[in-house]
Amino acid sequence: MGIDQEAVQPRETFNKVPLMIVLISGAFVAILNQTLLGTALPHIMQDLHLDANTAQWLQSIFMLVNGIMIPITAFLIERFTTRGLFLTAMSLFAFGTAVCAAASNFGILMAGRVAQAAGAGIIMPLMQTILFLIFPVEKRGSAMGMFGLVIAFAPAIGPTLSGWLVEHFPWRSLFYVILPIVMIDLIVSYFILKNVTKQTFPQIDILSILFSTLGFGGLLYGFSTAGNSGWTSDSVIISLIIGAIFLVWFIRRQLKLDHPILEFKVFKDKLFTLTTAIGMIVFIAMIGSAIILPLFMQNMLGFSAFESGLALLPGALLMGFMNPITGRLFDKYGAKWLAVGGLTILTATTFMFTNLSNATTFTFITVVNTVRMLGIAMVMMPATTAGLNQLPDHLIPHGTAMNNTMRQVAGAIGTALLVTVMSSHALPEKGINGIIHGVNVSFFVAGTSTLIALIMSLFIKNAQDEGVKMINEKRIG
Description:
Growth Hormone, Chain: A, mainly alpha, 15 helices, 477 residues, 3 domains
């Protein structure tokens, strides 16, 4: 990753549209890649002669490596140029995709997934950082709205596209479809990407990287496997203990270093802390739709995988299309009332899923979930943008890395928590509705958490003027 000496560009001196297209395309393929593999796992298992536990590692390793890379990204952004880092991340992702496409056995396929995840873990926070640096405060909501569209749209089409491809072509076609998009994006970005991040050349602290890897990696692995293995299994307990110990060591070390890898001082800003916590809760609630509803529809109501995906599709598409709109509303009115309104909708619709039964219809699930996604669209990106807006420019890389890391942890916790609640509260002796009781309880837990987030959202302030930013810069810096 060579140091590109091209000067950092002021935000007013270049056309942002081509740059936005390059960044959004990179983020799109990174997220699409993460959602494609689930539907194809049975075909991969059959072709490579794998059992379910082994094949699931193709999903788990991606999230694990991705979660380990994200906290380190703030350091990489300060160490290398925008162009150098983005081109390296996309090259790594392209290399991993090519390896997966050509993989002849499980080991090679796993190696490709690791390379893909390492690249994707850099791309997402780097993209958010660039957007915040090239757009003034009053336009960041719209920019983040476009980013939110990508986050919603890629997972919406991923399972459907994957299902169609593996039905008509070999499973390797998933990677052959992605590879040309990555290569085109890589070539175009080489010519149009500008250096917008400032290099401070922090020293590499090996202990911090080691503590971060073991800390976040241990927690993510523990939470990810708890849903299947149970909270009391040895592997889960040991992983969580190791993760917690090393995370505490990592945080304590960062607070002592002059140039930490991940700056925990961002949490000195109350609004950033508040919006990050709200974002984590909303992300956990969103997992309810992504994980619990398909299980409920397929295992308890007898719908096919395609039908369960079809029920979730309108909500994901609406969320995608609403993100640019809520971004513009944020620029005009701020985050508070968007968040309050969105969380009111999300809380109400989540509690509507606490009375499911074997008579629940496809239409009910589709309509209620679609309205839930509207609520999430009103909260997720506006709250994130409001929090990051409070940080001075030199802390934005740390803010985006922290935000993405917390979201990754929330996703792992949410999956494990809701699946465990569903399983532990099922009552098989009472028939199908007794089993569905576990689903209802899991949505009650999700609804309770969103109610807490709704109360928290009342404390969001719409202070975004330069005076507030200067005060924050003095206070945090």
